Amino acid sequence: MTRSLLTLFFALCLAFPLVAAPASPTLQLSEPQRQWLEAHPQLRVGLVLQAPYAQLDRRLQQLSGANVELVKWLGTAMQVEWIWRTYDSVGELEQALRAGQIDLAPGLVQTPAGLRLWLYSDPYMRVSQLLVGEREGNASVDLEQLDASAPVAVRQPSPVGDYLRATYSNLQLLPVAGERQALRALLEGNVRFAVLDEAQLSRLSREQEFAGLAVVGDIGFPQLLRVASRRDWPELGSILDIALRSLPPKDLDQLHERWLQASYPRLGESAGFWQNLSMLLGVLLVAAGAIITWLRRQRRSLERQLLEARHMMQIREAAEEALRLTQFSIDHSTLGVLWVNWDSHVRYANRAAEQMLGHEPGALTDRPLADFQPGMDMDRWLSLWRRARNSDEGPQSFETRCRRANGSWLPADISLSFLRFGTSEYLVVFLADATERRKAREALEESEARLKGIASNVPGLVFRLERPQVGAQASFAFIGEGSEAVVGYSASELLDTGRGIRGLVHPEDRDSYLASQSAALEAERDWHWQGRILTRDGQVRWADIKASARIFDDGRAVWDGVVWDITENKQIELALADSRAQLRQLSAHLESVREEEKARIAREVHDELGQVLTVLKLETSMCELAYADLDTGLKERLESMKRLIAQLFQLVRDVATALRPPILDAGIASAIEWQARRFEARTHIPCLVEVPEYLPRLSDAKAVGLFRVLQEALTNVMRHAEAHTVAVRLSVEGGMLCLRISDDGRGFDAQEGQRGGSFGLVGMRERVLMLGGNLKIESQPGEGTTLCVHVALDKEKAA
Questions:
Q1: CB-based contact 243:77 (threshold 8 Å)
Q2: 129-221 against 332-433: fold identical
Q3: Which parts of the sequence belong to the PAS domain (predicted)?
Q4: Would you give the DSSP letter of residue 135?
Q5: First and final C-alpha spacing in the chain
């Protein structure tokens, strides 16, 4: 037993080594940098959860990993407090950066696309891509000497797989979904080797399943990890570079070895270790059970007696408390309570009843009910007594008037209930002041009369739609008398026949009416619908229904609204829409004719002038061959003519290209790349282009329209944006072709641009509308501009 305990102690010491944090270095910062740090005592850190760089213990809510430890060192050096935020992917991290939710992120690899979002520090860690094989010896493997008989597993798609495919053409690569699948393929004999980075190898090598694997080579394609910070805070990037340089290389090497160095199962992971530990815990558990059993036997008899005594006390205290609460509730109730004997004399009255009737405390006791209700003679009282005593229907209720002590009258609601208490019998009279309720009822009646008068004179059909409870069917509870002037039916005809407003809707618009009404009822929101209705004489009229919703706590809901006759406005609107459609069709036709004319002129300029210039160049060359040696001046003239002809050739090509670029015949994707390269050559602004590999062919009109929109957008960037980079992306999204043009320029107010006289934006929007698409512009001053065009693909060509 002693030897087992010593073994357990040493195993625990080996399994949990102590990790010493590096000493806090002193940063050599300039005064502006120190002031910037003092102005920002808290910074937000974004972490992508991926072991062993960053991992979250859900139970303890603690972060750990190589990047977490590095950032903690940096925080100690910079004397700032970190606010940690975790994300599941780099895409979510970049989305949080755009939303302004984080300030820096460790462990990122510098990419061309990331340069537009981040400021990257110098590399602080090198993560090698390793070649893993069976543990057969210490000999390394040369990738150039491998052939197809030694397949290699690698995660695809990934930059590592692309690098191996481009560098080592002799390799036979087996794509897998992840690093674990690559190692399992190696263990199952499907491949000879597997490629994965140090971080994933250090994580997986701790598992017993992969203990027999070893590193046999390095493919020479390392990942350089950096700390990325916000581009709009260059001071933070410079401070991070200084802080990283201040960390001793030895500490970074120890960080690399602790988290990324491959390790194998320790003593604590062996079966014998856990067997001994289980035996020790079993002995301790048996001893604890014996002690607990002995203690329970000693306490059981005392607890039984204590519980019995406590139970009796609780029953007695509960009865006394219930009696006190009952008496207190009756005495302080806002409802008047009278206990009346069979002879109509009051035996008890609470304070509320005395205050309602205007008497002093105790003044109502032993007085007959006839003093407060003159009509309550003995015969009527005995009739009520017998009815209440023999009735099984519950309390009797009615409304009456009671006389106060000062002679005034109190409108009251009376409820009678029979009570037998011991050997005595009483009739309990519950008295409630009905003054406010009667005033409210009178005000409600007056309000309803006023509402009916107003509804009858409104130049529309006033209605109320009611739903008694959640899930119940709604019905029209009120329709104003103005319905006869609008649709020719009286309100009683629409309500009594159940026709309501739904029966007036045109059959072709009934589905949209029911859909809008159902949506308003389910969402419990305001109701709005426009459509056609039929009057009594069969005339088609346009109606606009607007109703506001009111939801009550008991689940009841009402919609109060008006049906307006908008026939004249709707006819004007339809005529205007038809006129706009005709103008847009005419504009599209003129634009198509213009593009066709440009294409014809371009072909004639290119073909006709090209042929003439070619002949002229041949004639000049023939003259040079025949007569240039006879006269030196003539030779110089002929050389000058050839240069002019070459310039004219280039001018003809430029004119033809400006009218219609020939690259459009190769497809819109090639045309976009060609135009982007011309833009870069002309402005020296980098233009990143992303187009799909396989793109459905477009009609010539749509291809030309998208190309002209791209030309106009790039022209605006060159003239106004003052951008550093431009990104053009063409993609297919849900049967639509999307062209997205983004720049990081100074931007502008998109709403002001739409209201202003920018004919370039108007022209692009009209051109897209003529193609049956839509254009969206997103821009804010100082935040760049994004222009997005969506155009439907041709169905027959997409198929």
A1: yes
A2: no
A3: 447-524
A4: S
A5: 78
d(CA 591, CA 708) in angstroms, rounded, equals 11
| Tens digits of residue pLDDT in 566-617 | 676 666 666 666 656 555 554 555 555 565 566 666 565 655 666 666 767 7
CATH fold for domain 21-125+226-260: D-Maltodextrin-Binding Protein; domain 2 (3.40.190)
Domain spans in the chain, listed from the N-terminal domain onward:
21-125+226-260, 129-221, 332-433, 446-564, 572-658, 664-798
CA–CA separation, 40 and 61 (whole Å)? 26
Residues 6+ apart with CB under 8 A from 231: 116, 117, 118, 119
Greatest CA separation for the chain: 156
| Dist. CA 667–CA 727, nearest whole Å | 19
Superfamily of domain 446-564: PAS domain (3.30.450.20)
- Predicted TM-score (pTM) of the model is 0.35
Task: Give the mean model confidence (pLDDT) for residues 402-416.
Answer: 82
Read off φ and ψ for residue 519, nearest 5 degrees: -65, -40
What is the homologous superfamily of the domain 129-221 according to CATH?
Periplasmic binding protein-like II (3.40.190.10)
Residue 598: alpha-carbon gap to chain centroid: 47
Q: Are 541 and 495 in contact, with CB atoms under 8 Å apart?
A: no
pLDDT tens, residue by residue, 125-163: 888 888 888 866 556 787 877 877 788 888 888 888 888
Reading the block at residue 82, the tokens are 């970190």
C-alpha to C-alpha distance for 115 and 231, rounded to whole angstroms: 9
User: Are the C-beta atoms of residues 451 and 491 closer than 8 Å to each other?
Assistant: no
